[in-house]
Amino acid sequence: MEEEKKEQEPVLKEARKDWNISNTLINAYTAYKKNEECGLRVQKVYIEKVVNSGSGAAMKGGLWFEWQALFDHLTDEDKLKEPEQILTPKTGKPAAAMKNITAQLDNFKNIYQEIEIHEVQKVLETTIDGIKYKGIIDVLAETKEEGIHIRDVKLTGHLNNKWEEYGWEAMQGNGGAIPEKKGLKQSKFYVWLWFHLTGELVPMYFDVFASNNSDDCKTIRVYITEEGIEEIGSDIQNSALSIREEMKNGGLKPIADMNRCNKCEFNHWCEHKTNKPRVEHVFIQ
């Protein structure tokens, strides 16, 4: 059993000192400030990046689908970097889910028939007050109706799940999707970063494909106003300043919780882990 446990321990890389602010870091830090995530894990995974985050079957399927869908627009170097497919452990052959994922490529082609792709995997980065902000958008696209805009390609097993944290049942209001779900919040960071770099407020679309049903997909357009983008930018920069301040003062604080600790990739060495549930405080007036 001890040997099995050691095999599951992640290989730790050297902690990065040249960290930057990304969408995933902002979301993780926001969860940490709400006591929904451990600060030590946020620091190790999203700031110092000592382990690779997201290497499960869902992530593998998504990376492979995106690589196939955008293949014609990739650089020659990236065309040689085919991501690993979801494999069946016993046989080492592609899992059943790959059939649905492969079939979704036809739906991608149908959606993009009248969409001009200018660039894929476009890096957006800037430095504000000594802090680097970076994002990589899937597709910089253009249509006659919208002009230049940002698109993100998603593969999910929760396409119409309104209860799942990363579900894609978009809340509607005022003629468009409200970025309440975690996945949709990505639009805030990317649209703000583009706005900061170019001065242009552009739409963002999510093209979302079901990994468990080859006939199910949807496109979600996110609306952000000029007033909204200013507030979003202020919130992002305030979070970035807070992260820098905490890192200067010893780093983010561990928040031990039995459920989180049991699933944490650092469980084998973390001195802050606990086997007891965290007390939740409720005030009744």
Provide the descriptors you would attach to this structure in a database record.
285 residues, alpha+beta, Lambda Exonuclease, Chain A, 5-stranded mixed sheet, 7 strands, 19% strand
Kindly summarize this structure in a few lines.
With 285 residues, the protein is of the alpha+beta class. 35% of the residues lie in helices and 19% in strands.
What does this structure look like?
The protein is α+β, with helices and mostly antiparallel strands. The protein has one domain: Lambda Exonuclease, Chain A (Alpha-Beta Complex). Helices cover 35% and strands 19% of the residues. The chain contains nine helices and seven strands; from the N terminus they run H-H-H-H-H-H-E-E-E-E-E-H-E-E-H-H. The protein has helices at residues 2-8, 23-33, 39-47, 57-69, 76-79, 97-111, 186-198, 226-248, 258-263, and strands at 116-128, 131-143, 147-156, 171-173, 176-178, 204-210, 217-222. The strands form two sheets. The chain has a five-stranded mixed beta sheet. A hairpin with a 3-residue loop joins strand 2 and strand 3. Helix 2 runs antiparallel to helix 3 (39-47) and helix 4 packs parallel to helix 6. The protein is globular, with a radius of gyration of 20 Å. The chain starts with a helix and ends in a 22-residue tail after the last helix. 29% of the residues are buried. Mean pLDDT is 88; it is low at 1-7.
